[in-house]
């Protein structure tokens, strides 16, 4: 009985946070073909390898961003990820892939302190001045990403990738963690916390949009 008394409120909280995320993202998630035009694609980081190549999950996100650029849906791409250690550089790897696959270097901007989804959204708005963007990630994550960005002042739509669902174990792990990540997302928005690293305004996106 004690376990049930503890578990029930926790399930209610998780369910409420998940529902909030889906309701906030409703009507704002599209395919590449259908998504409205925006100035910037915000590509969220994930694991990259030390040899300078992205994991399949990141590569799938980057290919969506490339498609958005080629289709004229965006004019610049902001790649946001973890570069907290010198030898591990998510945004640098992401930029190299995009440039190597035809996106002009002047159109790709790196955010080196996107340590989680909330930080990436906050920094896109407060450091890079992004007020409208297409957020690019996997489909199990896209509702949370869109909701967080919209909650911090970015008029965000989202495009999600399903192609890497063939990696069933990794896909399942990502999907299973989303309800718990929803609770963290709600806590971040309610607290209004600053990103781990904020820093001064950067002109990279402004410059990319002027090209």
UniProtKB/TrEMBL annotation:
<protein>
    <submittedName>
        <fullName>Vancomycin high temperature exclusion protein</fullName>
    </submittedName>
</protein>
<dbReference type="InterPro" id="IPR051599">
    <property type="entry name" value="Cell_Envelope_Assoc"/>
</dbReference>
<dbReference type="InterPro" id="IPR003848">
    <property type="entry name" value="DUF218"/>
</dbReference>
<dbReference type="Pfam" id="PF02698">
    <property type="entry name" value="DUF218"/>
</dbReference>
<feature type="domain" description="DUF218">
    <location>
        <begin position="40"/>
        <end position="156"/>
    </location>
</feature>
């Amino acid at each position: 009985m004690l376990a049930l008394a503890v578990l029930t409120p926790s399930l209610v909280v998780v369910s409420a946070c998940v529902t909030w995320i889906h309701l906030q993202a409703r009507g704002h998630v599209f395919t590449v073909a259908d998504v409205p035009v925006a100035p910037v694609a915000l590509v969220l980081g994930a694991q990259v390898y030390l040899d300078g190549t992205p994991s399949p999950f990141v590569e799938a996100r980057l290919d969506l961003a490339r498609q958005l650029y080629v289709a004229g849906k965006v004019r610049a791409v902001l790649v946001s990820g973890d570069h907290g250690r010198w030898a591990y550089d998510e945004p640098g790897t992401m930029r190299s892939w995009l440039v190597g696959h035809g996106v002009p270097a002047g159109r790709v901007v790196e955010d080196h302190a996107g340590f989680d989804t909330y930080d990436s959204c906050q920094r896109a708005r407060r450091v890079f001045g992004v007020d409208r963007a297409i957020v690019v990630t996997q489909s199990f994550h896209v509702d949370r990403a869109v909701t967080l960005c919209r909650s911090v002042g970015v008029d965000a739509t989202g495009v999600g990738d399903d192609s890497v669902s063939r990696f069933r174990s990794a896909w399942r792990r990502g999907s299973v963690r989303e309800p718990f990540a929803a609770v963290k997302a709600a806590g971040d928005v309610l607290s209004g916390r600053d990103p781990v690293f904020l820093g001064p305004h950067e002109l990279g996106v402004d410059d990319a949009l002027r090209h």
